[in-house]
Specification:
This protein is α/β, with parallel strands linked by helices. The chain has 22 helices and eight strands. This is VWA domain-containing protein.
Length: about 500
């Protein structure tokens, strides 16, 4: 009886040929597919490091054997070694990190996978992800922050972006496109879509960076010129500096101002490129075009005189020359920017202060800037210098938009020629009175643009009470990336 039972059990547990034919990949034994085992070892080590933080002896030794066997440096497994230091010692790896996690090109109809290449890619991907997302705990030095920012830059490069693009919210490089797995293999429906992954990962990088900045002893770092020089300007760092500026003096204050100015200049360079694409004023066709050669509209002149073509002489006789209009309407446009400077809006405050200064530099644009929390401050005299403007802000506190409205309304001299941009999360103390005054601006003929968030990441929440009422008014809240506001203002000024 035991023999018959054993035979029946063996029949049940023996794979059927049809099953083997249907799933050849799944039927392979681990010994038949060593590359897949190697790749899994590297990713299991990555997960263990990220979620356990303690060294797993077996996974560490197995991963070391894999890395050495495929000819990669053992420094890839050292959590203390930055990607920069690895690349410095092994410069040939720099090209492999670039675009590491973007879709791998395949020949048409070729779905084969080079498993040896995937193992190598897994080792490099693990290095970048571990250095960026295993940020540890405790006090952070300037050197550690700089190293993390550098490693985050390598992750952005691996995703097909330029260093700083994801954290800064600037255009996402060549990354958008078909699905891609963490190993870089494109195609299949089970792989995450990188065009959705990138917008999600940017804010997370910003959150990690902000946490690192908060864990720094910033005042001590700023007081040491050597340590301060290691700091890389970022939105998180600028927020901390602006909040703490009143407690700084001497060398520390000078270093803080230098960092703020560097960051302002970097952001301004990006925004200025977007703004300068705008036309300042439409063509004024009421003014006759100037009859000079450089304004000659040759195509229109030929088209209008085609009836004078002589086939016999093969010559076109021109009765009239046509010239292009070049004069633009010069009516000055007034732009009033009101920014909530409460604690939740620091990113908007920095971005919009810089943006206001850029628009203030355009001809025939009269820019006014007001910042408020429970008190309002007219920053218009310094609007051309965002650095000086930011130094006069006082981040934090509550929110009372009625005090800002008291400053903004008298500035609307010609409603049809005025745009009011109100930037806030609209969690206000006096909701009804503020909204009624905003409705009055809209009905006066001025263009009123409520903006819920003008951040690098596009994140931000808006009071649903205001959101619904602005929608009913026909002026829906504009939220998201700062490029949206640039587009709206360019349209108004065109």
């Amino acid at each position: 009886m035991t023999e018959h039972t054993t035979e029946r059990t063996a029949e049940k547990t023996t794979p059927q040929p049809s099953a083997i034919q249907r799933t050849p990949e799944a039927s392979r034994s681990p010994e038949a597919d060593p590359e897949e085992n190697r790749r899994q070892v590297l990713y299991w080590r990555l997960l263990a490091r990220l979620f356990d933080q303690e060294e797993q002896g077996t996974l560490e030794s197995a991963s070391l054997a894999v890395v050495e066997d495929i000819g990669l440096p053992s420094a890839l497994l050292d959590p203390q070694a930055s990607v920069d230091s690895v690349v410095q010692r092994h410069p040939e790896l720099a090209a492999e990190f670039d675009g590491l996690m973007t879709p791998a090109p395949h020949a048409d109809g070729d779905d084969t996978r080079d498993r040896a290449v995937e193992v190598r890619r897994a080792a490099l991907v693990s290095k970048v992800l571990l250095n960026v997302f295993a940020s540890g705990s405790g006090t952070v030095t300037a050197g550690q922050l700089a190293r993390w920012q550098s490693d985050a830059g390598w992750l952005e490069r691996a995703l097909g972006c330029k260093p700083g693009e994801l954290r800064g919210g600037r255009a996402g490089g060549r990354a958008a496109g078909p699905g891609v797995s963490p190993t870089g293999t494109g195609g299949g429906g089970t792989n995450p879509d990188l065009s959705r992954l990138i917008p999600a990962i940017g804010p997370e990088l910003g959150t990690i960076e902000a946490d690192l900045v908060k864990r720094m002893h910033l005042r001590e770092v700023l007081a040491d010129p050597g340590l301060a020089a290691q700091l890389t300007p970022s939105m998180s760092l600028i927020e901390q500096l602006l909040r703490d500026k009143n407690n700084l003096s001497g060398v520390a204050l000078a270093n803080a101002k230098d960092l703020i100015r560097r960051f302002v200049d970097e952001v301004a360079e990006v925004l200025r490129t977007q703004v300068e694409k705008a036309t300042v004023g439409a063509l004024d066709r009421s003014v006759p075009p100037k009859r000079v050669f450089r304004n000659l509209d040759l195509d229109r002149t030929i088209w209008k005189n085609l009836t004078n073509w002589s086939p016999e002489e093969e010559r076109l006789y021109v009765d009239r020359l046509y010239y292009r209009h070049t004069v633009r309407k010069t009516t000055p446009q007034r732009l009033i920017v009101v920014v909530d400077q409460s604690g939740s809006m620091v990113d908007s405050m920095v971005n919009c202060t810089i943006l206001a200064s850029i628009f203030a530099g355009l001809p025939k644009v009269d820019v006014h800037l007001i910042a408020y929390d429970t008190q309002a401050l007219d920053l218009t005299p310094w609007v051309h210098d965002p650095f000086e403007t930011l130094l006069r802000t006082n981040l934090g506190g509550g929110t009372d938009g009625t005090v800002a409205m008291a400053l903004a309304q008298p500035k609307i001299a010609e409603p049809r020629n005025t745009v009011v941009v109100w930037i806030s999360d609209f969690y206000e103390w006096q909701t009804e009175p503020l909204f009624e005054s905003m409705v009055a601006i809209h009905r006066s003929g001025a263009k009123f643009i409520p903006v819920g968030s003008v951040t690098s990441s596009g994140r931000g929440s808006v009071n649903p009470w205001f959101r619904e009422r602005f929608k009913d008014l026909g002026t829906p809240v504009l939220s998201g990336h700062i490029r949206k506001l640039v587009h709206e203002l360019k349209t108004f000024l065109a």
